């Protein structure tokens, strides 16, 4: 039960538009359609989750960036705002930190943002719903199918 | 004697105790006030700057570090035209857009912070003038000639007496009024101008803090730049519960000092335990070595719940607003002492001390605005209450915790509602079986906000449970911290000026601010430790200074015991409370002045330009929480010093981030403009975790003025921390290496091959004397 929770972070939910819930197949579709997608991977993933995410990135040939190792999340957000990437996927980032940072893109860019974390992330444009660990692995495996 | 037990033989020593000075106006031979004509330095271009006076400087900074906004909410709800949806480029009914609205909120936050410090300083100065007279001299001893670097630079005043501090505060208040009024509907419309105003508010905040800290240093004979300021006791474990315990919470030293004075006058210093939380704690230990510091803000609710205190004195700032309710629950007595926090209590200031004691015995809480009376009342009531509360238990014991945990329905709302999503539910599940590991871990990290408790459907007293487990399992909650030493001495500046400016000392790291830490206090100590070992100068104030003390090595030593208190490479300097943050910027200003002879008087932009280009300092506010912290950081930024915030700092909504592109400066030697590497890269930025913060510090200490040897030193640490924490080379290293001479000898091969991979080209030239004022 607890694995499904979203932290109650007021900063995450006080905007007018909240993320639409999306599914693995829709995410795959969006990635395929995107001209220049980017996958941003934080440090809070478990090993098996991380493996699946990286496989997904490789399979769809998405540019992958690790934060904060490769670049600070806010600096990255600022780069994304230049609209070189039309689609940005996020996972494994400290929940409230991403929630706050990503509002920048929501207001000041046309980048389509998708949270593929196991928590619902209202400040993205699309997000997975809250998932338990098993459900999340299931979602990630579905992303690798087909 | 409490206030005269340290350092030099200033006149005050002859005049104390404070209490006896009441109403006795002393006239000094020292020339008083109004010294504008006096020729201590020719007046610079911008004394007492108004809002637009330094706008040109702000715009230089904002061009290089454009504001980056992360709106918390995309509505504006400030007026009745609205509320207005400002999302995605929409304008409000007044015409305001979202960037300007975010900048406006930052300005309001900075004004709140600045007025909080100005109000505090005004209260101090006003009180001290009443007691000591307007002519009371400001003398920080022979080793500190530049007594007020911020006031000199900003206002052009060299404060000689308390009356001069009054003049400085008059200026601060006038500016805050103009600044805050600009936030009214239908005023400023440009986000850049809102930012310039926020920077102005930050500068005023810095100035107001300096006035306040100088006033308390001279009036209470606090250490005057004393690197051997005493090591004082810190932590829950050092409080002697067998005595009546008085706890002071907040930021204002005045009531606490009267308590110390009363104890001393009656020769009962050892009969009553005085302790404090937050800045009052630090400041009363600057008055006397006797009081103990419980810990930072984050330990407030826990300590009050522990029921150790018999009397709680609250003054101003950073106090839990439900403190009255919490104190009364423990059977203790609460005394509010400040107009800014009256808590709905009856003002009994007009009563005699004995009457107040009688009143308190009946009503358990009151407001006393005559701080002098607090001394006797607090002590005498503590003695009575301590007897009455002798065997009172306020925390559940361990077996009760197990029973309480069994009531937990495992709904998980506590985790969900915790700002850090700490694992409270898991701690409950373990505790049901008598296993306290979850709570033990929670105790280390939790900052006692109580949000988990607030939401718990079973009304479990989670913070009390955590506190009890902490008390039971952390046997060694006794630490040492150095009492706040105040300013940096001129001679220290003389000896570190050159190595800092040329880069031989790789940087000055200032750990400041509140305790909204993502993972508990220990991280602050770990950051300090990392850079002390690397021979940076580490400076601390406020709750961060306490957090640094709350870690010990294998031999049971804290960093304060391991490292000297001098402002030198490998020194750990605790300046004091949040007011004392002014001495950190003060040190940077003094480097410009004492080492490089940049005139200070009314010469803000030139001094800030010097600091931006030449003084490798960085502020870290790992747990920045309050509006005061917003004002402090923004003030520090205007001086050209970068600041790193913890991840919660993203909720301040605005950062100043470089574009990752080259910067332009003018070389004063050749008068030519040139592109340089982006240093310092950002002006204010967040880091997601401690590793990232540590890796940013060496980078943000780089300055265009570094000599090749100095830059190599800085690059060495940058590479070394990156390898230590991420196991790789820094991904942007190529940006910061100007020529091969910038590459540290020890790692030359490694760095060269990495740079070649990146297609790095050396710079043709770089500036010898960089400036952005062109
Ligand atoms: S101040 Fe302006 S944006 Fe805000 S509610 Fe009023 S009209 Fe709307
Ligand atoms: S009291 Fe501690 S555990 Fe509870 S919500 Fe606050 S930080 Fe989280
Ligand atoms: S909110 Fe209360 S009942 Fe629910 S899991 Fe947490 S402690 Fe248990």
TrEMBL record, chain A:
A GO BP entry is: methanogenesis, from acetate
Q: Which SUPFAM superfamilies does the record associate with it?
A: DHS-like NAD/FAD-binding domain
Under the heading InterPro entries, the entry gives: CdhB (IPR003704), DHS-like_NAD/FAD-binding_dom (IPR029035)
Question: Highest taxon of the source?
Answer: Archaea
- Residues spanning the signal sequence: none
Q: What is this protein called?
A: CO dehydrogenase/acetyl-CoA synthase complex, epsilon subunit
Q: Which organism is it from?
A: Methanocaldococcus vulcanius (strain ATCC 700851 / DSM 12094 / M7) (Methanococcus vulcanius)
Tell me the classification of the organism that encodes this protein: Archaea, Methanobacteriati, Methanobacteriota, Methanomada group, Methanococci
From TrEMBL, chain B:
**CDD domains cross-referenced by the UniProt entry:** ACS_1
SUPFAM superfamilies (alphabetical): alpha-helical ferredoxin, Prismane protein-like
Catalytic reaction annotation: CO + 2 oxidized [2Fe-2S]-[ferredoxin] + H2O = 2 reduced [2Fe-2S]-[ferredoxin] + CO2 + 2 H(+)
Top enzyme class, one word, equals oxidoreductase
**Enzyme Commission numbers on file:** 1.2.7.4
Matching entries from InterPro entries are given as: 4Fe4S_Fe-S-bd (IPR017896), CdhA (IPR004460), HCP/CODH (IPR004137), Prismane-like_a/b-sand (IPR016099), Prismane-like_sf (IPR011254)
Mind telling me which Pfam families this protein's record contains?
Prismane
Residues binding [4Fe-4S] cluster 1 are 73, 77
Q: Has the keyword Metal-binding been applied to this entry?
A: yes
Biological process per Gene Ontology, one example term: acetyl-CoA metabolic process
Which residue intervals define the domain 4Fe-4S ferredoxin-type in the entry? 398-427, 436-466
- Tell me one GO molecular function of this protein: peroxidase activity
Locate the residues binding [Ni-4Fe-4S] cluster: 251, 279, 318, 514, 543, 578
Q: Which residues bind [4Fe-4S] cluster 3?
A: 408, 411, 414, 456
Q: Where does [4Fe-4S] cluster 4 bind?
A: 418, 446, 449, 452
Lineage: superkingdom: Archaea
Protein family: Belongs to the Ni-containing carbon monoxide dehydrogenase family.
Record-linked HAMAP family? CdhA
Q: What exactly does this protein do?
A: Part of the ACDS complex that catalyzes the reversible cleavage of acetyl-CoA, allowing autotrophic growth from CO(2). The alpha-epsilon subcomponent functions as a carbon monoxide dehydrogenase.
Q: What information about domains appears in the record's comments?
A: Cluster B is an all-cysteinyl-liganded 4Fe-4S cluster; cluster C is a mixed Ni-Fe-S cluster which is the active site of CO oxidation. Cluster D is also an all-cysteinyl-liganded 4Fe-4S cluster that bridges the two subunits of the CODH dimer. Contains two additional 4Fe-4S clusters, dubbed E and F, that probably transport electrons from ferredoxin to the B cluster.
Q: What is this protein called?
A: Acetyl-CoA decarbonylase/synthase complex subunit alpha
């Amino acid at each position: 039960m607890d694995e499904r929770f979203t932290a109650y972070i007021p900063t995450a939910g006080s905007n007018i538009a909240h993320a639409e819930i999306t599914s693995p197949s829709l995410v795959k579709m969006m990635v395929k359609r995107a001209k220049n997608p980017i996958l941003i991977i934080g440090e809070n993933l478990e090993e098996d989750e991380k493996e699946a995410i990286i496989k997904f990135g490789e399979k769809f040939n998405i540019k992958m960036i690790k934060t904060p190792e490769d670049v600070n999340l806010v600096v990255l957000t600022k780069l994304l705002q230049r609209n070189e990437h039309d689609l940005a996927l996020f996972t494994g980032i400290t929940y409230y930190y991403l929630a706050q940072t990503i509002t920048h893109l929501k207001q000041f860019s046309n980048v389509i943002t998708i949270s593929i974390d196991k928590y619902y992330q209202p400040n993205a444009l699309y997000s997975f719903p809250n998932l338990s660990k098993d459900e999340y692995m299931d979602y990630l495996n579905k992303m690798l199918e087909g | 004697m409490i206030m005269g037990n340290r350092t030099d033989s200033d006149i005050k020593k002859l005049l104390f105790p404070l209490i006896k000075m009441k109403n006795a106006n002393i006239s000094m031979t020292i020339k008083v006030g109004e010294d504008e004509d006096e020729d201590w330095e020719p007046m610079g271009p911008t004394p007492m700057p108004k809002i637009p006076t330094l706008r040109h400087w702000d715009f230089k900074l904002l061009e290089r570090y454009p504001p980056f906004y992360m709106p918390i909410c995309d509505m504006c709800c400030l007026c009745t035209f609205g509320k207005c949806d400002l999302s995605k480029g929409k304008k409000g009914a007044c015409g305001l857009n979202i960037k300007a609205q975010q900048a406006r909120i930052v300005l309001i936050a900075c004004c709140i912070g600045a007025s909080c410090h100005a109000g505090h300083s005004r209260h101090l100065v006003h009180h001290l003038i009443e007691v000591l007279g307007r002519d009371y001299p400001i003398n920080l001893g022979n080793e500190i000639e530049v007594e007020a670097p911020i006031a000199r630079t900003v206002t052009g005043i060299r404060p000689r007496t308390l009356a001069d501090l009054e003049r400085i505060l008059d200026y601060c208040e006038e500016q805050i009024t103009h600044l805050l009024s600009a936030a009214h509907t239908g005023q400023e419309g440009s986000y850049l101008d809102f930012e310039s105003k926020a920077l102005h508010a930050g500068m005023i905040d810095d100035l107001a803090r300096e006035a306040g800290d100088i006033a308390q240093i001279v009036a209470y004979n606090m250490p005057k730049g004393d690197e051997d300021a005493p090591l004082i006791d810190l932590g829950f474990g050092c409080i002697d519960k067998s005595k009546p315990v008085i706890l002071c919470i907040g930021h204002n030293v005045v009531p606490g000092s009267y308590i110390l004075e009363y104890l001393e006058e009656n020769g009962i210093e050892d009969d009553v335990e005085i302790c404090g939380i937050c800045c009052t704690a630090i400041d009363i230990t600057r008055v006397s070595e006797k009081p103990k510091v419980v810990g930072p803000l984050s330990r407030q609710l826990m300590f009050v719940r522990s029921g150790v205190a018999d009397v709680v004195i609250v003054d101003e700032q950073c106090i839990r607003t439900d403190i009255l309710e919490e104190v009364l629950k423990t059977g203790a007595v609460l005394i509010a002492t400040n107009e800014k926090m009256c808590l709905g209590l009856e003002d009994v200031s007009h009563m005699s001390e004995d009457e107040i004691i009688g009143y308190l015995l009946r009503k358990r809480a009151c407001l006393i605005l005559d701080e002098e009376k607090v001394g006797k009342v607090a002590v005498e009531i503590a003695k009575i209450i301590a007897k009455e509360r002798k065997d009172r238990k306020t925390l559940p014991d361990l077996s009760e915790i197990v029973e309480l945990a069994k009531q937990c329905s495992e709904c998980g709302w506590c985790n969900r509602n915790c700002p850090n999503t700490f694992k409270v539910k898991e701690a409950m599940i373990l505790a049901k079986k008598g296993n306290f590991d979850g709570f033990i871990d929670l105790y280390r990290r939790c900052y006692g906000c109580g949000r988990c408790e607030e939401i718990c459907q079973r009304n479990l007293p989670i913070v009390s449970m955590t506190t009890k487990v902490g008390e039971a399992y952390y046997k060694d909650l006794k630490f040492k911290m150095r009492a706040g030493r105040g300013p940096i001495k001129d001679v220290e500046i003389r000896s570190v000026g050159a190595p800092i400016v040329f880069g031989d000392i790789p940087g000055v790291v200032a750990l400041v601010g509140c305790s909204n830490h993502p993972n508990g206090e220990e991280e602050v100590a770990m950051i300090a430790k990392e850079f002390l070992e690397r021979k940076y100068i580490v400076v601390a104030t406020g709750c961060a200074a306490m957090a640094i003390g709350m870690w010990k090595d294998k031999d049971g030593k804290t960093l304060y015991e391991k490292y000297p208190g001098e402002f030198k490479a490998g020194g750990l300097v605790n300046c004091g409370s949040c007011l004392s943050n002014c001495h950190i910027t003060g040190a940077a200003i003094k480097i410009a002045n004492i080492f490089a002879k940049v005139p200070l008087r009314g010469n803000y932009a030139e001094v800030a330009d010097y600091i931006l280009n030449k003084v490798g300092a960085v502020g870290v506010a790992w747990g920045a929480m309050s509006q005061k912290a917003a004002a402090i950081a923004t003030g520090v930024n205007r001086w050209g010093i970068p600041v790193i915030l913890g991840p919660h700092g993203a909720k301040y909504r605005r950062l100043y981030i470089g574009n990752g592109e080259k910067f332009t400066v003018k070389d004063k030697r050749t008068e030519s403009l040139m592109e340089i590497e982006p240093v310092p890269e950002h002006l204010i930025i967040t880091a997601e975790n401690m590793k990232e913060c540590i890796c940013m510090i060496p980078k943000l200490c780089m300055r265009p003025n570094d000599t090749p040897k100095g830059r190599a030193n800085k690059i060495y640490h940058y590479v070394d921390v990156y390898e230590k924490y991420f196991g790789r080379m820094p991904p942007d290293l190529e940006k910061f290496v100007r020529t091969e001479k910038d590459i540290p000898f020890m790692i030359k091969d490694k760095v060269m091959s990495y740079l070649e991979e990146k297609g790095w080209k050396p710079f043709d030239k770089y500036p010898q004397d960089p400036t952005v004022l062109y």
